[in-house]
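Researcher: I'd like a candidate sequence for this fold, 436 residues long. If you have to choose between options at a position, lean toward the conservative one.
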């Protein structure tokens, strides 16, 4: 479900006209729909409700705007964090540390100390050295650190190679073969309390069976640890994918016509939260533990768009370029993962004529593109478009490369739009810099 649709030829986010909004705040700009975020969260939570004791820890790395965090905290979400900075933001947004899990392979002593003093629910430990470090920091602080070990189930989940994490060749987690021994070690360390076991197989996964496979592979270990060390929770991580192709038409059907990486029309299947839940609920319920989920993209991905304006057109003997005012520094997914984002005009053009174009940004890199050889409505300078499904891993991965200020973020709620992050100024760009 999402709340972007055309009404009388203009694209709306809930009750807000995006072209009017773009005139007010300028482009490029990120816009998020509160309704979409809330309904994604509620729908997933409802699908998982047969589990009883559960906690959805939103993976805030996907979108860490304070207002998004605040909205989800009010829904009752916990948070999956990966740095001290993320915990700081959760607390500023009204979230609770005792509903946060702390993941990541490189937690510093300072971050561990901060999270421990704030009362974090669990450190998800990624290596044996980190286990020793957490114990040492806790000893120094005179506190007991709750931990879970991130166990790598060696499951192959079909996704882009940069976002697959559950194979043994990835840097994440501890192998199944070592896990029991690491728990033994944890049990012997006086400043640790074993709280759970965590796993995560990757991101943008569109099929449910790999999740069930991971649960199946870990079940004997989880039951053994529960008996031995009194495990309290099992976290299955995040990774539920969304549909990028046909993003606007997707609505809520189980599948729709989209196009594959080569632009060939194909049937795209959505991993509905209910289908995901149906696959994992029974094996998870059988564990008799609190179950944690760490969705990021599923909650916010289709809840955000990046608005951008056409600056120029340019043709070479082989290409037609449409140059827009957003760049790879603002949305890096196409450049980094060949990520596909639907591009929709804010005002539907009167003619149905299509042309094949590359939509590119102003950054001085050939990788600075949003679409290549894509059939698009004919666009002219001044026209505005939305890069759809940019709510996850959009703004959070942006940078000021080419001295381009960070973009504003706007949160829509019904008919109301609120500027929840200001556009950076050139002065902001040099804040903190000094001449020698
Ligand atoms: N839990 C852990 C331990 C993770 O590493 C991640 C994502 C998540 C949860 C949330 O995964 P999600 O539900 O969002 O798939 N920048 C990439 C995605 C990187 C994902 C990193 N880890 C992209 O734009 O596709």
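Model: Candidate sequence:
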């Amino acid at each position: 479900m999402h709340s972007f649709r055309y009404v009388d030829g203009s694209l709306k986010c809930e009750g807000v006209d995006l072209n009017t909004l773009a005139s007010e705040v300028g482009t490029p700009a990120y816009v998020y729909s509160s309704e979409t975020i809330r309904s994604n969260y509620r729908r997933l939570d409802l699908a998982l409700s047969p589990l009883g004791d559960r906690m959805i820890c939103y993976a805030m790395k996907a979108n860490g705007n304070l207002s998004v965090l605040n909205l989800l905290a009010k829904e009752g979400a916990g948070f999956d964090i990966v740095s001290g900075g993320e915990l700081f933001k959760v607390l500023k947004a009204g979230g609770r540390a005792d509903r946060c899990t702390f993941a990541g392979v490189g937690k510093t002593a300072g971050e561990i100390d901060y999270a421990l003093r704030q009362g974090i629910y669990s450190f998800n430990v990624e290596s044996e050295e980190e286990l020793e470090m957490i114990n040492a920091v806790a000893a120094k602080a005179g506190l007991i650190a709750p931990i879970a070990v991130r166990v790598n189930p060696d499951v192959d989940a079909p996704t882009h190679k940069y976002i697959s994490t559950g194979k043994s060749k990835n840097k994440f987690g501890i192998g199944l073969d070592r896990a029991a021994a690491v728990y033994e070690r944890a049990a012997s360390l006086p400043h640790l309390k074993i709280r759970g076991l965590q796993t995560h197989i990757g991101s943008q996964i569109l099929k449910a069976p790999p999740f069930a496979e991971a649960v199946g592979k870990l079940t004997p270990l989880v039951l053994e640890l529960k008996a031995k060390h009194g495990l309290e929770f099992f976290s299955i991580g995040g990774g539920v994918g969304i549909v990028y192709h046909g993003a606007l038409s997707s609505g809520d059907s189980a599948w729709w016509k989209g196009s594959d990486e080569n632009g060939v029309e194909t049937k795209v299947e959505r991993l509905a939260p209910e289908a995901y839940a149906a696959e994992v609920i029974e094996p998870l319920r059988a564990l008799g533990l609190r179950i944690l989920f760490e969705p990021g993209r599923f909650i916010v991905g289709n809840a955000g768009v990046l608005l951008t304006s056409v600056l120029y057109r340019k043709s070479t003997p082989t290409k037609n370029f449409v140059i827009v005012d957003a760049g790879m520094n603002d949305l890096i997914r196409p450049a980094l993962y060949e990520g596909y984002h639907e591009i929709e005009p804010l005002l539907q053009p009167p003619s149905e004529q299509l042309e094949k174009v590359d939509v590119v940004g102003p950054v001085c890199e050939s990788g600075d593109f949003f679409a290549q050889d894509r059939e698009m409505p004919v666009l002219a300078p001044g026209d505005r478009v939305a890069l759809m499904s940019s709510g996850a891993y959009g703004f959070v991965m942006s940078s000021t490369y080419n001295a381009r200020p960070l973009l504003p973020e706007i949160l829509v709620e019904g008919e109301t739009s609120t500027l929840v992050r200001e556009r950076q100024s050139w002065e902001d760009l040099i804040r903190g810099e000094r001449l020698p």
